[in-house]
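Appendix B, example 12.
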Amino acid sequence: MDVKVFRTFLEVAKVKHFGRASENLYITQAAVSARIKQLESFFDTQLFIRDRNAIKLTSSGEKLIAYAENMVRTLEQSKAELLLTKAHAIQLALAGTPNVWDAYLQHCLGLITDVFDGYAFSAETLGREHMQRALLERTLDIAVGLDPLKSEELNCSKVAELELVMVSTVVQNQQQALDKGYVYVDWGTRFASEHAARHSKMPPPFLRTSTGRIALDFILEKSGACYLPASIVAPFVEGEQLYLVEGSEPWIRSIYFSYRKDSPALAQIKQVEKLLDNSEPTSPFVLQQAGENPPAE
């Protein structure tokens, strides 16, 4: 079965429209329909329910999504690895959660590519569950996140610590910051439980997000408070765009490095782990520039 058929299925499932799928894939609508019919014929089941104004996935179609995603991802990685092998290069696939990229991994990626000359890397943002599944399915070599990945097939170790501090766009104490305009950032499962215990009587947050960068941009534009890495907010505090919230205690979060114990690239992965071990989180250059150059009033 051609991988293009599965790509077409995933695009239709995403946009819920044959016409838009054809535009996004740069093929005709007739070709989209033909590929879907080919899949339905192969599996001997209906994948979509076609209404006048929209289409919906059948239960069989819902089940096929995960398999189709895995097949497309595996074939794409296989193609990339074969090309790299032909060029006598080694590729390592690296992934991290969004917050880890913002606060730590972006800086580390520069270190890695500088040291590992002649290697090829792929880097992407994935959620915790997706990273663990990709490691187990051998479509990912290295996963970096704020929660340890637990599996007998994986090795997981702490490589760094991240200090989170509560900051606000105005000078205020912790209770004032929590009562109005507080933005909750998801810094992992342990943070969630500790946050619930530490701030058990606070009202619902004004905004919830899984990305520190979204929270930072939001409070700088709309005002508010949130927990962010000390390394990222330092230039904003120095420029008096943000202030440390009075009476708030910092949070220390561990950063974990995970990989398969039987990975064929084990030697290279351990080299990367050693390089990252205890490296200091550094604020991205773009954020430093923003802090050094506050907007004119």
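The first strand starts at residue 48 and ends at 50. The chain has twelve helices and eleven strands.
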